[in-house]
From TrEMBL:
<dbReference type="GO" id="GO:0030170">
    <property type="term" value="F:pyridoxal phosphate binding"/>
</dbReference>
<keyword id="KW-0321">Glycogen metabolism</keyword>
<dbReference type="GO" id="GO:0008184">
    <property type="term" value="F:glycogen phosphorylase activity"/>
</dbReference>
<dbReference type="GO" id="GO:0005737">
    <property type="term" value="C:cytoplasm"/>
</dbReference>
<dbReference type="InterPro" id="IPR000811">
    <property type="entry name" value="Glyco_trans_35"/>
</dbReference>
<protein>
    <recommendedName>
        <fullName>Alpha-1,4 glucan phosphorylase</fullName>
        <ecNumber>2.4.1.1</ecNumber>
    </recommendedName>
</protein>
<dbReference type="GO" id="GO:0005980">
    <property type="term" value="P:glycogen catabolic process"/>
</dbReference>
<keyword id="KW-0328">Glycosyltransferase</keyword>
<comment type="similarity">
    <text>Belongs to the glycogen phosphorylase family.</text>
</comment>
<comment type="function">
    <text>Allosteric enzyme that catalyzes the rate-limiting step in glycogen catabolism, the phosphorolytic cleavage of glycogen to produce glucose-1-phosphate, and plays a central role in maintaining cellular and organismal glucose homeostasis.</text>
</comment>
<comment type="function">
    <text>Phosphorylase is an important allosteric enzyme in carbohydrate metabolism. Enzymes from different sources differ in their regulatory mechanisms and in their natural substrates. However, all known phosphorylases share catalytic and structural properties.</text>
</comment>
<dbReference type="Pfam" id="PF00343">
    <property type="entry name" value="Phosphorylase"/>
</dbReference>
<dbReference type="InterPro" id="IPR035090">
    <property type="entry name" value="Pyridoxal_P_attach_site"/>
</dbReference>
<dbReference type="InterPro" id="IPR011833">
    <property type="entry name" value="Glycg_phsphrylas"/>
</dbReference>
<keyword id="KW-0663">Pyridoxal phosphate</keyword>
<keyword id="KW-0119">Carbohydrate metabolism</keyword>
<keyword id="KW-0808">Transferase</keyword>
Amino acid sequence: MSDTFDTEPKTGPTGLSRTGMTADALRAAISDHLLYSIARPPAILRTEHYYRALALAVRDRVQARWMPTTQNFLDLSRKVTCYLSAEFLMGPQLGNNLLNLQIEDAAREALASLGQDLDEVLACEEEPGLGNGGLGRLAACYLDSLATLQRPSIGYGIRYEFGIFDQEIHEGWQVEKTDNWLAHGNPWEIAKPDVNYQVYWGGQTEQYVDVAGHFRVRWAPAQIIKGIGYDTAIQGYNVTNCNTLTLFSASAVESFALEAFNTGDYYRAVEQEVAAETVTKVLYPNDEPDIGKRLRLLQQYFFVTCSLQDILRIHLDVTCRPLSALPDSFAVQLNDTHPSIAVAELMRLLIDEHHLAWDDAWDLTVRTFAYTNHTLLPEALETWPLSLFGECLPRHLEIIYEINEHLLNQVRDRFPGDDDRVRRMSLIGEDGGKCVRMAHLATVGSHFVNGVAALHSELLKASVLKDFYELWPERFGNITNGVTPRRFLALSNHGLRDLLDDTIGTGWLTDLDRLRELESYAEDESFRTRWRKVKRANKARLAEYVHTTTGIELDPSWMFDIQVKRIHEYKRQHLNALHIITLYHRLKTNPKLAIPPRAFIFGGKAAPGYFMAKLMIKLITAVGATVNNDPDVNRFMKVVFLPNFNVQNAHLIYPAANLSEQISTAGKEASGTGNMKFMMNGALTIGTLDGANVEIREEAGEDNFFLFGLTVEQVEALKATGYRPADYIERSPELTGALQLIAEGAFTHGDTEVLRPLLDSLVFHDPFLVLADYASYIACQDRVSEAWRRPETWSRMAILNTARSGKFSSDRAVREYCDEIWNVGPMSVTM
Ligand code: 26Q
């Protein structure tokens, strides 16, 4: 720890400490920030103060690139992508910004000269958990690629005060703790209180005739809320380009408070303010039926109207272009239906506020928006009860009725007499009370609709959006997801990064297809030895983390078999558990059996109101407690449930995996992106033909992928003929034995009740065909164990997985969005 203030940067002109990229300049900058921003005397400086000082120093350097980028795109009036998403799961920022600015070594050296360790400083960052899972993380990966590919872009979203809950495990059960990520401030954001927008809510519409004699509608809201933008810089890798993420936070409108104050009702004014702030208070978990419906709708509308008002402000007031040029200036992507109210909102802004005619407004709207679908699960397709919708957004309901009339007339023209089709395609659903179907609204209001993996996009056209595909086949396409190799390879797997750099040079980081050059090294024994050394070190690092967080000791020489993702019945963590129970049963009944030792590692959060998912966690932890403490089996297997899976600990998890579990029921996982992160880091996949697994297997080669389970067609056929889980139990003694162990309380100290709902669900309903895929899964796992016995073969397969993972870079995905949907080209920026 330094005990004197570094008031005078010793590295030359004072300006250097603000933007210099050398270790000396960084040291001076950190010292400056400790003095002028942190304001703590040296004697009481702690690691977290150094974190903050370094973060501010890095932010200065990022800002030096951010401003020229923004200025450039204003000067050149380049087309911009606006990515509207209710979630951005950004993960820790400091390490990523150091990587993208290429000043990791300089920062390490600067901190060391101040007596600090970079890794300890990095560990101080509280990550913004502003997403549930895959969809939110995808948005973050795409921002990284957009900046790196030099495409001008703005991410728009919500600045939740509380992100996704922190998960703790108490006696094997999930316990939720509030995620107060802003408690110590957020050094990465810049509040822009001058950039604020009014958000109307509730009330009614009024018709009037304006001075020119035009018939118009105005919205008299019951409530007005203010949205304030907070900007975060998104620095591209090894480029000057630095884009913007704007997250909106809700607060009270001053005039409201003032009015109440004038009438003497000071406390009512304060209450209003508190009420307004609840809008962006908390991120709602998915899989959470019906709670907070009204507030969730308000959140969506809130960030959508703020985003569109911001876009129109830039377009009309800053770049001074005509409204008719909107689709040439902005491409607006809807990340699932969560922002799909944007279709009606842009229509409202164009017609009511800017006085465009309906047809002109509609033309601009459709040319501006595109929609990405992320789910086929019927229960996950968003709808809003019509009455609620009309109470909250009366003007939007009118507009939606009118869009619907135009749509249904078009359908009647094309398919005369097909009333059933008209009913199916309507924006208003009639089943189980009237509702607004947001996927239909997003689809009619967009010029392009894409799914997130090849299989998913095909299923989309054949199922939930079939009728729309038949009306507008040219609007549908696929863009397979991708993940950023900067965060999920370079930043989190230093060992592999160095090995790759040594072997094939550094070009892979921005051109991931170059990993193909590794293929020939799969046959090189000395390379395989180095490869295993890297993996082993990564496993030791994860083992240490597992030990400090759970007390469980893992041997890094064991196979690390990992399933990390949200807990859900369709993702089938219980199928994985049944395999573990089967091995346990085999070992208990056959004391001579020796199996290749495995560590089974799970991680993931269950929605707080999703009882069955929470019970799946209890099943895993109960099996773990039994297995880990039984000397008959714990020489061969251990089971870990890692609490609080998030981006930060994901950095330790993916690089340490030997086996990646991607075992969803075919047709249920839209894409998956964890599967891609594992593959890049050299894990082999055991998986079904679902989501992007299909393409992962195609790329890796079928010999380098462990395939099991029913196909989509077989799943559908089985469901159509009447699926009976009992048939599978009768046929398989091992399955019967495994279920029996759960039933008799072998993992619950004899308690036969606690896991019964899960067991009953499997035995009597099994909506996700766990038992139908059990035998195939177990047989496949036996092949995995056999392959693990041959380390050279396993290494060869693992190397080929990394070598062939190039397709799954988010750079490839974002390039496809830019070329096929957004028509946004690169803009080079210099300082
Ligand atoms: C909706 C309404 C009310 C409250 C919450 C929600 C809500 C929030 C988040 C619904 C869904 C989500 C998130 C969905 C998600 O993460 N989907 C995943 O998206 C990934 C990126 O495309 C895919 O890889 C995964 O297959 C898909 O499950």
